[in-house]
User: Fold these one by one.
Assistant:
Number 1:
Amino acid sequence: MVYETNRKRSVKKSILTKELKQKILHYHNQKLSPEIMVKAKGVTVGISTIYYWIHHGKLGLTKQNLLYPRKGKTVKKQASPNFKPAGKSIEQRPKAINLRLENGHYEIDIVLLTRAKNHCLLVLTDRRSRHQIIRLIPNKSAESVNQALKLILRQHKILSITADNGAEFNRLSDVFSKEHIYYAQHPYASWERGTNENHNRLIRRWLPKGTKKTTPKEVAFIENWINNYPKKCLDYKSPREDCLLANLNLKFSLFTSLWFDTMQHTWEWNSFTDVFCTCC
């Protein structure tokens, strides 16, 4: 009897309360990763602890409920030895774009929903701010891509586009300056557009492969969700917050520059009048 009592006392009490479990499940249903729960949403346990609870069934979830369940290795496709980029190579891309120094430089891709020839997503991702533009298009033809891109260019300031060598992007120069389009140098090398590819995974949280139906309203919701999703590379700010901050900094820089120019002209005028009055 004494042994059993002491044994119960020696067991560490679980920190997984009912309220904490509900909070984690709430954020899980919103497609947030454990890292974002802890770093941006105030869940007060370790990231590894949440994964431990998932793997051991403490949250009523299984490994299949993970945002990215592990898959087997895929067979790597082989490129033709005579392959040539459809336009300017990514290796000719300016250093400012490669180093992500300014907003407005986008990577472009197509996200297929099913293998059948039907609706798919045209996706553009800003290399610096990770701002996302998503449009539902009827198919992955170059005509559909260009038609959607024309409308996007009226709404967003795009300075350059980096694309792969798919036939759907061969005619981008019909609607966008050829000088600012860059194509991946190597076929089947999605890592050359890593920003784009990583954000496509966020889309898959809502529209997994095999999704047969979606609507422009649902796509707009996903776009808004991604643009408000905290990112580690942005110090856990969202792309929208980062863009707003960048715009404020730009306005402040312009104001400061204008103020200094005004003060300099004022100083020069005062110096001139002083000299003029002395001469008189």
Number 2:
Amino acid sequence: MIAALICTFLSFYFAFVLLFKKSEPLVLAQQQRQSRQWQNQLHSLFLFYNSQLLVFGYWLGFVLLPLLCWTLTSSILLALLCLAPWSIAPPKIFARLQRRRLQLFEQQLPDCIDQIASSLRSGSSLINAIELFAQNTSSSVSQEFTMLLREYRLGHSIDQVLASLDKRCSATGMSAFVTTARISVKTGGNVAINFDRLSQSLRQKFLLEQKIKALTAQGKMQGLVVGLLPLAMLAILWHLEPAAMRYIVSSWLGYATLIVLAGMLFLGFWFIRKIVDIEV
């Protein structure tokens, strides 16, 4: 078994090397484009990792993952099907990281606005208040404000850097903050009072979102159970009756059953997520 596994790995390796040499310019160009794209996405999240190393690991997974799946199941079709979730994993991961950053951003923004409003009451200007907040805190909001201050020091006006901040950050609370700040800078008035009202509104909105999230947590767990329970039963039956279950991965009827099962699981999970997905 070990000798067969080593021979299979070596054959895959040499085939990959030969194919890579034939299409090396195209592969390198694709890796460079993907590396630049991932680097831009990571920098937008203020994550500074080696994107070239991540791209190399991603492409290496296209070789090792099917080999591992084929070793465990002895099914070429399942070894090829496992590439589908691997190929769409990076966009899903980046989208999840973006959502988590936005959630943390919305949670921290009301306290940030309160601190800026307190600095404005003490006589500081808007830029000085933002700078004081960015220097004394280490949060995702302070990272965005640090970027704003760098643009301001390069010679851009307050209105321009606020517009750039609004374009760079897609959080609803930040858009409201930028709108309030730009109107106050142009028309004047008591900016601190406006920021106090805005922070109170954002805090109430966040509390309402958390309440809805708590009320819909059971539905989300039900969707997760609906999706994982058949897979768990399949794994248990595979362990108890391997001879009978191996027919699923060695015949076209078994493949059709798995495809229908995967489609029904996806639809059930998708419908439950849509039902419990409530936006404020």
Number 3:
Amino acid sequence: MQDSRRRNGLRTATWSVSLGLVLGLIPVIAGQTAMAGDFQAGMAAYQRGDFAGAIGEWQPLAESGDAEAQFNLGNLYFSGKGFAIDRKTAISWWERAAEAGLAKAQHNLASIYISANGETQDYAKAVAWLTRAAEGGLHRSQYTLGKMYEYGLGVGRDFERMAELYRLAAEAGFHRAQYNLGKAYRDGHGVDQDIEQAAAWFLRSARQGYAKAQSHIARRLAKGEGIAPDPIEAYKWYSLAIAQGETGLADSLAALRASLSPEDIAEAERRVAAFQSVAE
């Protein structure tokens, strides 16, 4: 029992580190602001690498309560552009923007509280900020909050709530959420098990170029699991997933290749070469 708990704890700890990378920080981006001229002048300076110029435009706006400027100043402090790196000050600016209701800032604070940094890691605070950002319609936060419910980090484990959050982000086109909703349908976690729905969501994510989803839909197309069998399409998706670094697929692709005619292989290779990701 103790070994099992240790393994589960290790998986959770490992996932929490990787989640910080998945969640990511939302960078400096243009936003809607009451003083658009000054803000956009700062954005123009930022885009040409003039960070001092950007600060000169954004600092007065931030101090006067402009949440977009506060958010961007936080990013500059966090990344050390125009300032020495100062994460405490970055967090302070993000907190001001977050309290004003800016979902991007709420998301960045959650990222800080999730990251495996002993000074700031606090899953409960991360969940609180993710909840506000998710309610504000930020799809990346909806997805990540779903992950928190899936693993029981800072909140009780709840597969139904997990699936609800994945669906919100998936229906908006967030590829990771589509893939994870597919897994929920595959396993019957938070939803009724449905292999056709699983395949449909894996396919939507795969079309956006997500390698994990490409490997999953390839297996289903090869076997006819939840979707009509199509060995040429299976070959295409296996090839695309392998090209992005997915492992453990080479034998499946080789076996599939051995079952296809030269004409079918040529068609599959043509589809691989022609593939372009599309929004789903």
Number 4:
Amino acid sequence: MNLLPPNLSEWIFPMTAALDGSAGTLRPFWARAAIAICVGTLSACYVDTPPSPLDAVATRMIALLQDPTADVRRTAAEALGKLGSPVAGPALTGALRDKDPRVREAVALALGRVGAKGAAAALVVGLDDPQSNVSAASALALGELELGRDRQRDMLKVLASGRTSSRTAASHALLGQSAPQYSPVLVAALNDSDASVRQGAAATLGETGDPRAVTPLAELMERDSDAGVRAECAYRLGKLGDPKVLANLQRVAARDANSNVRRWAEWAVEFSMPRPGND
């Protein structure tokens, strides 16, 4: 039996109204945080409330993004993400500059769920945040959005020149796109000093499906010092299934020092065999 009222606003509106204490004063921070948590929880589990009441609730949560207490701002951002109201987009975009990294992390994730105008541009900037948790959250959020080539080019710029955590986040954000585009920047990132960046770039190159990705991936598979990178290359080459790197895969399957890499190379060999009629 569903114990929630048929109209969620019967619960949420009194909660948001309770943000104000007697004589219009603001309740203590712990009470404001608790109300934001309740609003976010109810919004996440009950989604068929008419849009206009949710917009009204979102307006109250938007005000809490300016709260003096970071935990309240963070909780309000989480609630706005669960509400999913587009009216929150501009406020969330501005809150991505909050001084507290935990708030910025919550805001980035909320923007991915809301998907409002301007969210993608703000999240690309978030990839280069000095805090790795914020750049990682921005990458996850960008994966929720379908981006055009212009935004993908912006992410490639971060991949080419950002700090290590930013380059890693940019490679993950590009991989999260349904149709990542081939770029020489991805090929250059295969030589990055950080293994996580190289692995992300290899995965994204493979996902492009572009034949130009085959040779760089095969070369990296045989020379990289990191087993995770080599295994990623073998897996992506198996998905691409190009017979011209069959010999590379067979060498790795027979000789690589890491058993996981050998297994993926053996798997890839099966998918890279020449097929009758494909000569």
